[in-house]
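Notebook, p. 212. Picked up where the previous page left off. The plan for this session was modest: take the two constructs that came back from the sequencing core last week, fold each one, and keep the raw output in the notebook itself so nobody has to go hunting through shared drives later. Recording the first one now, exactly as returned: residue sequence, then the structure token string.
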Amino acid sequence: MNIDEFNDGLDQWGSRTDRWPEPERSAATALLEQSEAARRQLAQAELADQLLAADHHPAPHHLRQQILQQLEGDDMVQRLADWFAAALWKPVLAAACMLALGFSIGFGGAGERPPDNELHQVSLLTFSYDYQEIDDAL
């Protein structure tokens, strides 16, 4: 293991080499015995871990109070209903308009059937090769 691989290991697994995977742990231990630069890198990583672990600052009291007041003022159900209604009204309105248009065309007489005698004449026209045959058939 070289110093770059050791630094990558510090980034991946942290400064506690006992948590490293076994092959890398053995190579890191051997490198630490030989290299002063590796020992300095490990010391810096341990210091960074200690600083991160010790940095527990509670939130200021006024900030906590503001957050709690906002949570009490918000009605989650109302916020959810407002979001759902805002996201849903446009597609529902478009679908309702199309549905109303379809019903009005369907029930408005646009598709009326012709009287039976006209239907018979249309079917004769459809299946005849010569229009003279229709006159003979009637």
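Okay, moving on. Second construct, recorded in the same format:
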Amino acid sequence: MEASAAAESAESVCAKYLEIFRLRNCTDEPAVGHLIALYRGTPSVLLRHEAAYALGQMQREDAVPFLTEVLHDATQDPITRHEAAEAIGAIGLPQCIATLRQFADDEAAEVADTCRLALARLEHQLHKGPCACEKRPAELLRLEAAAADGTPYEEAEEKADGGGDQPAGSAFLSVDPAPPADAAPLPELAAQLLDGKARLFDRYRALFAVRDAVPKEGEAAVLALCDALEDDCALFKHEVAFVLGQLESPVAVPALIKSISNENEHPMVRHEVAEALGAIGSPEAFELLKAYASSDVEILRESCQVALHMYDREAFLAAGICV
């Protein structure tokens, strides 16, 4: 499982990052094999984490044995094991419940929390059935890949849908760790989001409901998400940062800068914050990202290198990454 201990160069990290998301958009069996090979061939925790993430987003059952192997391997970095557990949850096979239960009390908090979250997602799916937002992402990935090949998006969508009606899901191209909570007034959702005593799964549901409310609620919803960056749970904060990156709202920049500047913050959070700042592309974050691009913390350093590369929008759009 282990690759050479030699660190990846900044150029190599950025190139492989783009390749991961290109492969994610393919959603076919060869792409799964290439992602697994990329994982095995790099020492980078960032790239391994992103490869595991991509495998989960593709929702291919043939990725489960490898992801299970990663989760079982206690010599792996907890960040990559966490991502493997999240990917298993995203794929959503009931037969994975026993594996997730096995690691729900793992000594690494980020692994244990993720396994409990994935279990709650699977249990919710078994009782309620997958909602539209959970059914659509793999199809949307194929549409994005078709668009990258020059097929008009509307034409690709019509072919994928067979001309029929399809339930609308979330506007975001991701398989989320929890479905959004039912629509409710923003203050109610924000209270659930920030309730540290609530079940993590319910807080995640509020998180995605607030995200989806941004078109209607505007800055108030973004600022509610920013408040959640002050939480005690590293796993939760890293997901908040991911969502802020999806939203690409400049309103979030001050809170993100505060988070990445906190030397005591979990590297998993700072890594996700760096990528969020890159996705937003704010001028005021550029110099800070440059400074952290030489950090001694590998995943932060590499994430900042990728984030700086995100300022070249064309390269990322060509790889099918929405920034």
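Notes on construct two before I forget. Confidence is low (pLDDT under 50) at residues 156-168.
Flagging for discussion at group meeting.
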